[in-house]
Amino acid sequence: MELISLKDMPNDAKVALLKELGYGADDVYVLDGQGMPIKDKYIDAPVRLENMLILPGSAIVLDNNPLSIANYLEEFGELP
Amino acid sequence: MTPTPDEEVIAGVTKGVLDYSAEGIKRLAARLLHRDLAFIEDRDSFEAVADQKRHPEWSFFKEYVKDRDLRVLIRIGLALRKLEGREADLQSLRKHTRHKYGLKGLYVAQLVQDGDLGPFITTLLSKEMSKADLGAALEQLLSNVEKYVIFIQGDIQLERKILSVSGRINTLLPSAILICGSRGAKRNAEKVAKGVMRRIDGYELSKYEDKVKAVYLIMKDESPDED
Asked: What range does the domain containing A63 cover?
């Protein structure tokens, strides 16, 4: 599996990608289809545009932290 | 100059990742949905967890520990170890762990980070237990970490701690208890372990020590009684 760093991606490209996946974004947070900030379900905190992960499994958007990654891998299995 | 068809193909492949046009974004989204790529923030943080699949210690734990929360905490412990030296990342992960799993969860992660389970696992393996029994013993210890793992500090009242631990063993009859002491607390850990052994029956004491820490394993003696 290829890993693409969001650090190197321009902000407008991030927003376009999120829109393509059914999400949105304001200047700070990732938003759901209704325009509400989405929460990382593993740490119950809003996901910031500048510190997010987008992982396979119906395009899961998470906060970038090891606890969320560990939970994701337990729920969806190891990444190839 | 107009590119040749070959040049266009090469450009298409190269720009497959970097092309942020509307079509490029659609291709990236499609590849994500096909589990062909993932978007991460920085490789080091991500791989502190994702690369554990190549770690022999994780291979062992995932074979024997089936409880989902314990598996997550073990992954966190291994990640904490990987992040050692990056103080801000360590503090952030400890904070998230305590918030979600409480102090008990943090203890489990810390045990794994410090490698303190090694003596216990070595002893279990030496007993040639079945896979199910070994897994159950490991899960029992981790699920009851606040009762069965004692972290000794340098400034404790020794007699009170000895009475408390031996009382716990005589009441709960656990299959194993770990007593851990690091640096200045190593000597206290030894005094507590030996003091406890004088007040209990039917348990064996093993000691594992390196320059930094000492781990005492008090484990139920399962050898058959001699008549």
From this structure: 11-76
Prediction ipTM score:
0.95
Listing DSSP states for B104-120 in one string gives HHHHHHHHHHHTTTHHH
| A4 domain residue, yes or no | no
E strand map for B59-200: 149-152, 176-182
Q: Test B46 with A69 for CB contact under 8 angstroms.
A: yes
CA A51-B25-B53 angle, to 5 degrees, is 55
Please count the residue pairs, one from chain A and one from chain B, whose beta carbons lie less than 8 angstroms apart: 123
Count of structural domains within chain A = 1
- Per-residue pLDDT of B166-217, as tens digits, reads 999 999 999 899 999 998 999 999 999 999 999 999 999 999 988 888 999 9
Of A1, A44, A66, nearest to B39 by C-alpha is: A1
Q: Which residue is associated with the tokens 């009242």?
A: B157
pTM: predicted TM-score of the whole model, two decimal places: 0.85
Q: Which residues of B are less than 8 Å from A40 in CB distance?
A: none
